[in-house]
Amino acid sequence: MSHDCSQWHDRFAQHLDGALPPDQARAFDSHLGGCPECRQALAETRAIVTALREPPVPAVSDAAVEEALARFRAERATAATGAPPPATQPRADAAGPADSAAPLAARRILRGLSPRVWRAAAAAAILLAAASWWWGVFEAADGRVYPESGSFDMGAFPPHAESATVTVTISLGWGQTAHGFDKFDVVRHGVVVGTGTVGGFDTRRDRLIGRATALPGERIRWGDRLRFRR
Amino acid sequence: MTREPEDVSDTQLRRRALAGGRDAEDVPRLLLERWRIPASRIGRGVLGRRPQEIDEAFVEGSLDALRKLHAVPEGVRTRAWAMGIFRIACLRVRERRPAAATEPEQDRPCEAAGPATEIRKRERSDRLHAAIAALPDEERAVVEHRHLHELEFAAIAQTIGITERTVYNRLGRAFAMLRAAIGDSFDLVP
């Protein structure tokens, strides 16, 4: 394989996505015309990409899509009419009592507060959320090892898994949104043995539990630690 | 199964939903249709070949994501964010699985294809994913983000913290390794 071929092989992904600039696409087509090796390699790459794009087995069913849509529309319709939301499955990791479970007396007091008090409370909440967000980011960015008491969830992972997932408790405080995507190192006996990224999602309702996605393989084991970095 | 054209991103659809009005009405369905394939791949990875559990996680996770669409942080790709939520739903479903359950993995019958085709596709998929798992970290990450999670190139670059050009280069190297690993045994005809 010539240097020229190697250069084009790096652009197969762009070519198959139609993302090559027009001048490069013309040059690529011209090269392909005279290079059977590249044509073969491109055909193999296209077959791989086609296989990767095939719907996975098993795929989410049509019924599941319709159920999710129907439940979402029902919730929205209920919210629009002001009726109480339909009962949903309780979350295993729900963060504290729901509004409906608040003591009646407390709710009466809250209803009696003036708009001015509400505005002040809202401003204070925003300030607290902002403060806790930065606190959380700095904690994650300063190289501190998380978590001292966390657990990893690799034991039951299926051997054919496409990606590995670990569960890690991240104390970001104040229930703010855990913003992704931060990177982390997997540390074993003080040595970095792998890397991953932590996803972004709302932790408000998840009892401040963060989920981190690691690269697949068996690099993460029980007792390993994650060190976050920006 | 309908697929939306890629020139309309999930983030654009989200903005349309938040803007309200008649244009917003079809957004939940469009998003669900776009999420089902990457969600299936994540579901298969976390839950194995258990279609009922994958469906359960999809309903739970996609509902969560649709409810929280307004809360996607600025600068975060909606698709990647939604898949993060779906992954959590998968983990919840797995945690709810009874400890004693030993239900074997199974495949949903493929209505369009015969059993032989189905088995061939499954074997090919297993071989391909084994080869992906054997890739070096950097190359494996871009293949997963692009083809399993269906992130756009810009989102991959943002997620990993590299340039788009580097994403292409790593994908090029990854494909070369995959060709070397499975080239002869891989059917060129799907």
Task: Explain what this protein looks like in three dimensions.
The complex is a heterodimer of chains A (230) and B (190). Chain A is of the alpha+beta class. Chain A contains 7 helices and 6 strands, in the order H-H-H-H-H-H-H-E-E-E-E-E-E. Chain A has 2 domains: 3-53, Orthogonal Bundle (Arc Repressor Mutant, subunit A); 97-230, no CATH class. In chain A, strand 3 (182-188) and strand 4 (191-198) form a beta hairpin. Chain A is elongated and about 75 Å long. Chain B is mainly alpha-helical. Chain B has 2 domains: 1-108, Rna Polymerase Sigma Factor, Chain: A, CATH 1.10.1740; 109-184, Arc Repressor Mutant, subunit A. Helices cover 66% and strands 0% of the residues of chain B. Chain B has helices at residues 10-19, 27-47, 51-67, 78-96, 115-133, 137-148, 153-160, 164-182. In chain B, helix 1 packs across helix 2, helix 2 (27-47) packs across helix 3 (51-67) and helix 2 (27-47) packs across helix 4 (78-96). The interface between A and B is large, with 69 and 91 residues.
Biggest pleated sheet of chain B: none
Helical proportion of chain B? 55-70%
Beta-strand proportion of chain A: 5-15%
For the termini of chain B, the CA-CA separation is 19 Å
What is the gist of this entry?
Chain A has 230 residues and is of the alpha+beta class. Chain A contains seven helices and six strands. Chain A has two domains: 3-53, Arc Repressor Mutant, subunit A; 97-230, no CATH class.
